[in-house]
Amino acid sequence: MAIEDYRGDVEMCCRCSACKHIPLQKVKGVEHSEACPSISRYNFHAYSGSGRLLIAKEMLTNGFNYTDKLLDIVYNCQMCGACDISCKYAMDMEVLLPINEFRIRCVETGHTHPALDKVIKSLRQQGTMVPGAKGKRAAWAQGLGLKDATKEKVEVYYHVGCLTSYDKDYQKLAKATAKILKKAGIDFGIGYENESCCGGRAFQMGYKDDFLKQARKNMAMLKKAGVKTLVTGCADGYQAFKVLYDRYNLKGELEVLHISEYFARLIKEGKLKLNKKVNMAVTYHDPCYLGRLGEPWIHWKGKRVPGYKFVFDPPKEYRRGTNGVYEPPREVLKSIPGLKLAEMDRIKEYAWCCGAGGGVNVSNPEFASWTATERIEEAESTGAEAIVTACPWCEQNFNQAIKESGSNLKVYDIVELVEKAV
Amino acid sequence: MAIKKDVYKEFEDVVGVENISDDPAIKAAYRSPDITVVLPGNTEEVAAVIRLCNKHRIPYKAQSTGWLLFAPTYDFIFLDLRRMNRIIEINEKNMYAVVEPYVISAELQGELFKRGMICNVKGSGSTCTALAMSGHGHMGLTTSTGDRNELATEWVTDEGEIVRIGTLGASDEWFCGDGPGPSLRGILRGGGVITKQATKVYHWPGPSEYPLEGLSPRYKLTKKPSELNMMVRYFSFPSIEKLIEAELKIGEAEIAFELMGFNPSMVSSNITTSNEEDFATLDRFTKEVQGPGFMVIIAGNYDEDFAYKKKVLAQIIKETGGQSLKAVEDPDVEATLLFQCTRVSASIRETFRAGGMFSSMMVQGQRYDNHVRWLEEAAVWKRELIKKGLVIADDGQQFGWGEEQGHLGHTEIFCRYNPYDEKSSEAVQKWMERVGKRALEGCFAVPSMGVLPVDVVGKKVSNYHIWFGKLKKAFDPNGVGEQTGFSYVGADSAAAHTSIYEKPEKAAKE
User: Fold this and answer.
1) Which residue of B has its CA nearest to A74?
2) Under CATH, which architecture does the A124-268 domain have?
3) ipTM score of the complex?
4) Are B90 and B97 in contact (CB under 8 A)?
């Protein structure tokens, strides 16, 4: 699909501005009513979901005009999909997909962002989205005696992810995950140096070809290793394996689970017991790529029925965020003795983004921090002492914003709290 | 043509470098090739921008939230008021709220619900500005209409003077739009920019927050409406006369919170989450209704009040031969209509989802029975377009509602269509002209805003356009403000004028 294929969707935008706000039924007042970080921060209509579609419509009609401002608009978007969900509360049209295709067109025509280019260079050279990564990908696993899934058959393959593998501040998540899985008696393995980036963040940034290369490479490795179930603690990785690989017909029969889904399953089966008290008041942040964008891909092919209605044959089933991963992480948190969970105003399909998506954490760290600070203030308003997330990129971005703002809020990945409870 | 660099710099000095742009990408999102967009953050910045427009004789246009794809503007300065999004005050004792232009109705309503109050929400829906202004809304039976809700107002004239209208002109109070202090409410829609406005708010008998569960787009109430002392029903009637009789009786009895003259297609749009589901539901509803109808919401303040209102409603419906649409009696459907229609969150489903656009003729402020014959003619002409496959095949009916317990009213009829289909657009434009002419010639209502030339309309209405022109000249001597010639005497053509879909290359040459 290319941006041209979404012309009908782009033309359906009626500029109602629903994309700027959370679904209207959920608006409780002036606080936390906004859905889109980009329009909230930059205010010109061009930075909203609608504005992006209207720009696309103009450029599909009169040609692409890549001004600096256009690229500023394009790259100051976390691709979080909040606009898409709010629009589809009422409308039958795609919003995020054409926005994504527009960015892909920018990359394909060489109108890239230098900071993102640097990240992609790292991906091409080292197979990681962490530029300047040093050492081995699986250095964190040294001495843990974990199975190498590429050398011996295992039930479960644990895909660690780039940030968790290479960033020393987040390797704790990999170690905790391994410890918990062992405790639950799971026969699992990792890819060691054969693990490579999922490609999901490259896709968000518009580098579709790099994503596809990574996807093919990963699936070849997983197929060779005979992996049936893949588990990951990274929301971006989850969405890549589960949704994007499926979208491009690369996933096959691979079962893809986020670690929170897997923990919830193990708890239900009695394999994972959370006995230790964790006396803490927390709130949960739904990562965009686990929540609304973690919804399974719907394979659909059809044509618009000629005439005055925007309908298709066969009828098109839209992804509206209804089937994202929302309950498993909450079930896990509720299983931890002593833990009190308070919800923020914007949750699940209309959660506010952490700010790190779409490469914004590297292309515009100030905007990423601004977005995270908004979320931190929302979390603080619940009375929670910590915000829990289920993605290392969210955790990293929250920590950075807290460091800058001086907030006392603590940040945890759900894995860290489970580790405390086992 | 862009403004000169040194002039641009003067505007930039007012709003800051982050809040001004004439980049093609920014302009594309406003669909206007020749504008400079500025984002003022407060009244003083609005006034300063307008004074600069006067100094350099540069036309300007301002917009609050906007709704739908307005016509490309060739005014050079476009004020997007998005940064002015504060609720200034909610005065519970005197029952008004003061807002800036970019507070949306959903936000104000959310705040008011917590205090047992509610505001009028325009029919365009709760994504739109909470300024009182002229928008009529589905809850007009108890929340009145936009222009009658306007209280004190802070207004920047076309010359850039900040004028405080009503009580605000004599004190810091916002409770009255007419004084003590200057009263200029009658000309507010002629130009300038409203920067703050007080709107009346009303008693809300419903919950402080709807108890919802589920995920978008299928939210559900965790309680039955009856557990909230609320009830929703849709009644169809054997004739329009009987419908009007029922509507007036309900108004006289003051038992309903909302009486919305939905036609069946608007009910089906509200409760469904896709076009396919919508059209299938409409087919079922169309077969079941006996004639024109309305939706009514009863809201009890306490159990006995709820029981009394239901009993009176049942009696009125019996006397007028009304028939309840069974599907709406299902508590899930009833609940969906309840929260959709009181929060006005689904107008987009009613209007845009099917084809992408709608064009509408409406009469604001007059009772339904005054002009129903004209609307019935409009419906017949609309059905001709439906038969030809030019507009969405709903039932073709008009709709409307009583305001202030039926003393006033609002009626409307619209066509939904694909604006990129030239035949459809042309047909709808002709339908609008035909309906507009009939309204004028039959003395039913006054069409405006592009349906018919202003001087043609003006001659029929005391030459208002000449007086309007004089007022405009007095307040806008440099001619920098909008030149819409807007009337507010009767009917407005809302929504898109089809000419906005002229191809960009053609528009750019004009």
Assistant:
1) B25
2) 3-Layer(aba) Sandwich (3.40)
3) 0.96
4) yes
